[in-house]
Design brief:
Elements (H helix, E strand, L loop, with lengths): L6 H8 L3 H7 L11 H9 L4 E3 L4 E3 L3 E2 L5 E6 L6 E8 L6 E7 L5 E6 L5 E9 L4 E10 L16 H4 L3 E5 L8 E6 L16 E8 L4 E7 L8 E5 L7 E7 L4 E6 L2
Parallel strand pairs: 1-9, 3-9
Antiparallel strand pairs: 2-4, 4-7, 5-6, 5-8, 6-13, 8-9, 10-11, 11-14, 12-13, 12-15, 15-16
């Protein structure tokens, strides 16, 4: 279904270069995926959708390790971001994660498991209800979602489950960046005899209790996930807390 450009989108297009403005308008899928229509209907519903060059999905064009594919979502050029949904068209489990930037920027780095070559996309919902979509093709040998996790070969992994480490950068080119690493197998449930076991919810807040970002994570997030976000110029420690689908919780503080 096609939707007309909103007044806000028309105004934004007027400020952009002709090439970017053309990409902003609704058109066929720029990644030419046979599954795009299904993705739009099942994930984005009847809301208006725009392919928008300001939504950047940064990933390798060829991923040698399908179990650890680095992806960065950068929608900081887009005002009024409420929610970001990341998905992979041809994964057996399509949704990768959602994140809700509150006091942080609309920026997140992480790693994902891919079952085969696929578009990896970010759909960014703004305050006017429009989904702005960006994406990129990632080619891979595949099998990332149906291969057993490394934890399955270790007898000691339960002792380290949900162990958190992190770092903040207060100066230099990475100033304002926060990195969080969590020990977790992130099992997809697609390996025989191994049920789905994955992180579900993660929150990051500042020392005053103001939430920086909330994440909902799904099975395709890579084992032992690492998340990178832009906090900005605010100083002080960051508190991270979360839980997995078996009810295990964690809470940790990342010092300045």
């Amino acid at each position: 279904m096609k939707f007309p450009l909103t007044i806000a989108a028309i105004a934004l297009a007027a400020l952009m270069s002709p090439a970017d403005a053309a990409a902003l308008k609704e058109s066929g899928d720029p990644l030419a995926s046979a599954r795009w229509a299904d993705m739009q209907k099942s994930l984005l519903g009847n809301a208006p959708v725009l392919f928008d060059p300001r939504v950047k999905v940064i990933a390798p064009s060829t991923a040698e390790n399908p179990m650890q594919v680095p992806v960065t979502i950068d929608a900081t050029a887009l005002p009024g971001v409420q929610e970001v949904l990341v998905f992979a068209d041809f994964n057996p489990i399509v949704q990768v994660l959602r994140f809700f930037p509150e006091a942080s920027g609309a920026y997140l780095g992480f790693r994902v498991k891919l079952q085969q070559s696929t578009p990896v996309r970010a759909a960014v919902r703004t305050a006017d209800g429009v989904w702005h979509v960006g994406g990129t093709w990632v080619n891979t040998v595949g099998g990332g979602c149906t291969a057993p996790s490394g934890a399955s070969a270790s007898k000691a992994w339960q002792q380290k489950l949900n162990r958190v480490s992190g770092r903040q950068w207060s100066e230099g080119p990475y100033s304002g960046r926060v990195r969080l690493s969590i020990v977790h197998p992130m099992d997809t449930g697609l390996v025989a005899g191994t049920p789905a076991f994955h992180l579900e919810e993660i929150e990051l807040s500042d020392a005053a209790g103001q939430r920086l970002m909330r994440l909902q994570t799904y099975e395709p997030v890579a084992e032992n996930p690492v998340f990178t976000l832009h906090r900005g110029a605010v100083s002080g420690p960051v508190e991270a807390r979360g839980r997995d689908n078996n009810g295990n919780t964690f809470k940790a503080q990342i010092a300045q």
